[in-house]
């Protein structure tokens, strides 16, 4: 940032980045230029990490320059010398016009911005320069690309446009390991343009007046001014000083003219709009105790005696084998690295830390991390076996999250971890402190809580971020390599860790000392908490889990035996993989090993979800959409071994009423079933459910809270199929047919001499020719896999039905598979009419043949049969059917492998897991994957290693947004959307390759006296002012009703030119949240289709209204990644034939981003909302 002293300022891309991270830091940067006298005596924070990275970054840049000189020849690399801005700009322009392959330190200018790009690299393509243009490359020391890297590259790309008349299509980040990450500029450009616009607006309006400074209480970062910001907040008595206060609560308090901690502590108000009475009481008490603690040597604290079993009453008594645990992690490592696991404990005879015994496990790569994890778990489990009253104490959730992640990712010590967690061995002290104490501190971090029970720390490493700097610096200097090679390193530590000599390893010793201090602080905290527990007369009384009296059925016992056999089969394969070096280095073998435990990892998340919810407080449970909170049972009637129950609950909860059909009662293992939600009374929620008579005791704890259950599906047949494939590959090293194409991620194989691909509109502009080319391509498949990507409204279902009909007429047998029966039937239901002389069957999904025949009467559908399972008759065996529709569980059955179909069409393949596809790959000679990975994704829950968690389509397309021409077919013409609706989706989501059918341009809305609806087609944004809404907004409901009223005064012109009045059926209302669905259904007039985004794929309407509901994504349920999910917004907007209307809180897009994906997501929403062009 620079004052030009002519009334203008010059800015750099770095200034944008500062503003992006902290508007306050940006404001301070401008203040330091305009009013330096006001900053006398104020120092910036000394950021050791920034200095460290800057030094290493320059070294990395120089090395990469040398690489480019060697790659392109030194004579083809221009280096822009230091000098005046004009001289450097002229030199850069001349070098670009001369066509150098690489330009180093290129100086660029545009409008107010100036900057030097690390590298410009020449690409072929038209521009003002000729048959080439330049793209920006930037070197970064990091191991992964950070969000601000792309903002910087977008700024350079924008500045390049001035010289070459073209924004480059892509930009490149060169990472610390020399990996070149390539990015499409279009995915990030709207975010950059919006950020630039905000930044310039702030600069234009800047006065330096204190009342224009960004509100520190709403900031998330202060850049290099953290200490000064803290001083200012202290001076201002900011509400942000109140521990555990939320940003939306601060906003509501500001609206109520409560702007300081003191005002909050002293207010007599018991009601503030947007804050529940319980939450208001909590933050008032917190503010009060902090106010009273000011000026004291130690903060005041207060024991909360009524803590619902979650405060001091949940603190167990002591055991001699208790452990006090802390992890040091390195976030710079790809996927993180937990490199030090430390435990303090009581044993004067053991190796000592500072004041207590100490044991540690070290890891400097992921293999060592697994060994460290296993060592820790084994030691912990062994101690627990000795004394079942032993506990492991830690502070906050980091340690448990790491344990869960490593056990599932590595599929190791799963049983031990599960048993330890189920039995409550791990105790999170943060939750006990938060629920059991009020402390006069601005934070409940352990460093703040320490003020109550210990003095100031004296270790060289004082904070967690300093340990990261120490550790990363040690690695960069080759410390980890020395640790591996030297005799007094890893080998010596493994041989005798208790007596290891740390003297030669000074950096690790400092980090170790810091970890010891953390562990011993945890130990001392437990001792202090027990003192408070005793002095307050609080007895250890954890929430007792009510046990069901149910015994295992014969089927459950059989399943358990089968699972034990399956686990043994899987474990044998894992051990062989680890033992054989050839398999170790084989990426296919590795993927198959990862896939073996795909289903286990998914189940583990469901298992742990129950325990996560047990730890939540009442407010968190109320806002959890998988929980029904505080049910008052109003009626119970016994009927043949069960109680039929009715109850009521607060309807303001965001319950997934469409998903919860069974549940577990909180604090028990008692199940309730056949849950039905009724809507007879909108003032209170009503529910009916069943519970076994033997479990009636659980009803006595009314009010009840239900934790919604996921439906359990036995995946043993799929897991055994993957075992079979893995065993065969390990034995023979060969893959056959479609499986080989899939696992090798190969292009499809054809029986023709010349590949029939590409099938594109360039080659086949006529619709019929295009369809015939598609049929010919699929007919030519030769034991392989082909992908068909069908964007919104592109006729995927129409195309598939006609292709299937043609194949059957040519004597081929067809299978249709998807995750859901509904998706299968969407493709299958019209085929009996297209194939009147063929035999078709649907397997499962209707419960009985009677239910099936109600929809498909035998007289009208004599060739369409139903089977409950894959058990066919002798009269009509499996191989006599020309078309069979079934889920993955059907096609995994033996009969499907014995008589494989010629083609298996997998619909909605973006929602089908790779594991499922591999499991049934032997059921077909050829596989056709249909779907769109840029619409709704597979409902994955766990974190999976490698590519094992990807969907079938995502895996085959290798991350591409649009399928490459040589790999399959992209249905590039949308028959649904007006071009103005299609265009932003095409540009951002589909690389500009999706085009609207020419007749779609006729689709429009005509309103004679429009007030809100200011355009006849395209995407329209309506801003609504509201604050504090997380999942529903009455303000938006009012606006939606106004829009509906206005729309119903107008007409819709369809693609054929027909004009009709707009009625309820022409309007589709979509929202991300069930809570907003319920509110819209309750308040809106008329018979309107209202749904969540998940429920409308496949639907369309002339007008779509999207109600975003949340006021602030940071405070919303499920956060930014859910609200601005590109796939979900793509699905929502693309339902519109003429007009999509986005109703959203004003400024919803002003969100703090933490990842590249989040920049893409916010940028896409901005593109839709603002219709930004590329000026």
Strand content: 15-25%
Number of strands: 39
Alpha carbon gap, first and last residue: 22 Å
Apparent shape: globular
Secondary-structure class: alpha/beta
Instruction: List unreliable stretches of 5+ residues.
Output: none
Percent helix range = 40-55%
Please describe the biggest sheet, giving its number of strands, its sense, and whether it closes into a barrel. Answer: 8 strands, parallel
The whole-number mean of residue pLDDT values reads: 91
Strand order of the largest sheet: 25-24-26-23-27-28-22-29
Q: What's the helix count?
A: 41
Please tell me how large the radius of gyration is.
32 Å
Tell me what the structure shows.
This protein is α/β, with parallel strands linked by helices and 1175 residues long. 40% of the residues lie in helices and 18% in strands. The chain is built from 41 helices and 39 strands. The strands form 9 sheets. An 8-stranded parallel beta sheet has the order 25-24-26-23-27-28-22-29. A 6-stranded mixed beta sheet has the order 3-4-5-6-7-8, sandwiched between helices. Strands 16-17-20-19-18-21 form a 6-stranded antiparallel β-barrel. Strand 30, helix 36 and strand 31 (995-996) form a beta-alpha-beta unit. Helix 5 (147-164) crosses helix 6, helix 16 packs antiparallel against helix 19 (506-535) and helix 27 (767-779) packs across helix 28. It is globular.
Summarize this entry quickly.
By secondary structure, the protein is of the alpha/beta class. 40% of the residues lie in helices and 18% in strands.
Attribute tags:
globular, 1175 residues, 6-stranded mixed β-sheet, single chain, alpha/beta, 39 strands
């Amino acid at each position: 940032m620079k004052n030009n002293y002519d009334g203008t300022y010059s800015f750099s891309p770095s200034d944008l980045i500062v503003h992006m991270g902290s508007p306050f830091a940006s404001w301070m940067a401008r203040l330091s230029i305009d009013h330096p006298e006001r900053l006398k005596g104020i120092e910036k924070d000394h950021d050791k990490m920034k200095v460290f990275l800057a030094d290493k970054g320059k070294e990395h840049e120089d090395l990469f320059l040398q690489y480019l000189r060697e790659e392109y020849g030194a004579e083809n690399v221009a280096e822009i010398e230091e000098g005046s801005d004009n001289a450097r700009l002229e030199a850069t322009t001349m070098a670009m016009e001369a066509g150098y392959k690489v330009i180093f330190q290129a100086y660029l200018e545009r409008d107010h911005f100036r900057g030097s790009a690390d590298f410009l690299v020449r690409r072929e393509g038209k521009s003002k320069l000729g048959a080439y243009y330049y793209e920006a490359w930037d070197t970064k020391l990091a191991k992964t690309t950070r969000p601000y890297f792309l903002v910087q590259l977008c700024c350079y790309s924008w500045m390049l446009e001035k010289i070459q008349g073209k924004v480059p299509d892509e930009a490149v980040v060169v990472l610390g390991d020399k990996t070149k990450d390539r990015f499409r500029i279009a995915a990030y450009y709207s975010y950059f343009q919006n950020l630039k616009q905000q930044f310039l607006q702030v600069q234009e309006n800047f006065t330096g007046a204190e009342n224009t400074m960004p509100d520190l209480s709403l900031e998330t970062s202060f850049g290099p001014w953290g200490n000064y910001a803290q001083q200012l907040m202290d001076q201002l008595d900011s509400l942000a000083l109140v521990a555990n206060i939320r940003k939306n609560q601060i906003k509501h308090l500001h609206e109520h003219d409560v702007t300081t901690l003191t005002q909050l502590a002293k207010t007599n108000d018991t009601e503030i709009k947007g804050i529940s009475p319980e939450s208001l009481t909590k933050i008032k008490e917190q503010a009060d105790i902090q106010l009273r603690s000011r000026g004291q040597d130690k903060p005041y604290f207060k024991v909360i005696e009524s803590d619902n079993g979650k405060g001091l009453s949940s603190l167990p008594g002591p055991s001699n084998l208790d452990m006090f645990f802390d992890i040091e992690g390195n976030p710079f490592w790809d996927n993180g690295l937990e490199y030090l696991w430390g435990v303090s404990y009581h044993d004067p005879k053991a190796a000592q830390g500072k004041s207590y015994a100490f044991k540690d496990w070290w890891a400097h790569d992921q293999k060592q991390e697994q060994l460290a994890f296993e060592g820790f778990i084994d030691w912990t489990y062994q101690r627990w076996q000795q004394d079942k009253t032993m506990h492991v104490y830690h502070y906050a959730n980091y340690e448990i999250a790491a344990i869960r992640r490593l056990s599932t990712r590595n599929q190791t010590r799963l049983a031990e971890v599960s048993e330890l967690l189920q039995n409550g061995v791990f105790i999170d002290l943060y939750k006990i402190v938060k629920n059991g104490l009020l402390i006069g501190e601005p934070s409940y971090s352990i460093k703040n809580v320490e003020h109550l029970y210990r003095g100031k720390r004296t270790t060289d490493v004082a904070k967690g971020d300093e340990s990261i700097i120490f550790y990363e610096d040690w690695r960069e200097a080759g410390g980890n390599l020395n640790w591996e090679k030297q005799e007094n390193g890893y080998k010596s530590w493994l041989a005798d860790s208790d007596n290891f000599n740390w003297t030669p390893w000074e950096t690790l010793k400092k980090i170790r000392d810091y970890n010891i201090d953390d562990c011993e602080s945890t130990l001392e905290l437990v001792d202090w908490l027990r003192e408070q527990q005793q002095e307050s007369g609080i007895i250890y009384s954890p929430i007792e889990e009510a046990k069901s009296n149910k015994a295992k059925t014969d089927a459950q016992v059989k399943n358990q035996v089968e699972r034990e056999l399956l686990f043994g089969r899987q474990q044998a394969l894992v051990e062989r993989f680890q033992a054989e070096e050839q398999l170790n280095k084989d990426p296919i073998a590795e993927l198959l090993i990862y896939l073996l435990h795909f289903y286990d990892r998914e189940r583990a998340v469901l298992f742990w979800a129950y325990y996560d919810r047990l730890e939540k407080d009442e407010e968190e449970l109320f806002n959890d959409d998988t929980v029904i909170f505080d049910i008052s049972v109003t009626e119970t009637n016994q009927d043949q071994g069960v109680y039929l129950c009715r109850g009521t609950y607060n309807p303001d909860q965001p319950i997934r009423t469409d998903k919860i059909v069974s549940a577990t009662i909180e604090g028990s293992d008692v199940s309730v079933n056949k849950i039905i939600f009724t809507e007879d009374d909108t003032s209170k929620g009503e529910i009916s459910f069943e519970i076994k008579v033997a479990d009636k005791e659980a009803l006595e704890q009314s009010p009840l809270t239900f934790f919604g259950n996921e439906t359990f599906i036995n995946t043993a047949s799929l897991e055994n199929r993957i075992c079979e494939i893995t065993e065969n590959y390990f034995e023979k090293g060969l893959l056959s047919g479609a499986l080989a194409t899939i696992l090798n991620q190969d292009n499809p194989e054809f029986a023709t001499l010349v590949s029939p691909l590409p099938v594109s509109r360039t080659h086949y502009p006529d619709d019929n020719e295009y369809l015939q080319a598609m049929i010919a391509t699929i007919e030519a498949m030769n034991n392989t896999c082909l992908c068909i990507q069908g964007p919104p409204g592109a006729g995927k279902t129409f195309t598939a039905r006609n292709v299937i009909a043609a194949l059957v007429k040519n004597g081929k047998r067809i299978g249709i598979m998807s995750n859901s029966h509904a998706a299968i039937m969407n493709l299958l239901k019209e085929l009996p009419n297209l194939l009147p002389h063929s035999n078709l069957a649907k397997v499962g999904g209707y419960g009985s043949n009677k239910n099936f025949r109600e929809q498909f009467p035998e007289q009208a559908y004599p060739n369409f049969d139903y089977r409950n399972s894959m058990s066919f008759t002798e009269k009509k065996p499996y191989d006599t059917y020309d078309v069979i529709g079934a889920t993955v569980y059907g096609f995994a059955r033996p009969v499907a492998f014995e008589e494989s179909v010629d083609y298996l069409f997998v619909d909605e393949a973006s929602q089908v897991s790779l594991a499922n596809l591999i499991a049934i790959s032997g059921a077909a000679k050829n596989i056709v994957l249909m779907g769109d990975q840029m619409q709704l994704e597979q409902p994955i829950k766990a974190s999976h290693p490698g590519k094992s968690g990807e969907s079938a389509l995502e895996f085959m397309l290798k991350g591409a947004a649009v399928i490459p021409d040589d790999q399959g077919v992209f249905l590039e013409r949308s028959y649904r959307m007006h071009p103005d609706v299609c265009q932003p989706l095409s540009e951002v989501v589909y690389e500009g390759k999706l085009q609207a059918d020419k007749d779609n341009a006729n689709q429009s809305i005509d309103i004679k006296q429009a007030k809100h609806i200011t355009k006849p087609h395209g995407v329209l944004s309506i801003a609504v002012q509201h604050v504090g809404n997380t999942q529903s907004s009455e303000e938006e409901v009012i606006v939606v009703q106004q829009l509906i009223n206005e729309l119903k005064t107008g007409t819709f012109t369809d693609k054929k030119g027909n004009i009709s009045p707009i009625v309820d059926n022409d309007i589709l209302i979509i929202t991300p949240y069930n809570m907003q669905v319920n509110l819209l259904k309750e308040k809106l007039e008329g018979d309107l289709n209202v749904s969540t985004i998940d429920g409308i794929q496949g639907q369309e309407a002339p007008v779509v209204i999207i109600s975003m509901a949340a006021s602030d994504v940071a405070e919303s349920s499920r956060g930014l990644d859910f609200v601005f999910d590109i796939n979900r917004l793509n699905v929502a907007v693309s339902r519109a034939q003429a007009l999509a209307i986005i109703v959203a809180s004003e400024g919803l897009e002003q969100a703090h981003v933490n990842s590249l994906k989040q920049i893409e997501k916010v940028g896409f929403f901005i593109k839709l909302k603002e219709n930004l062009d590329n000026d």
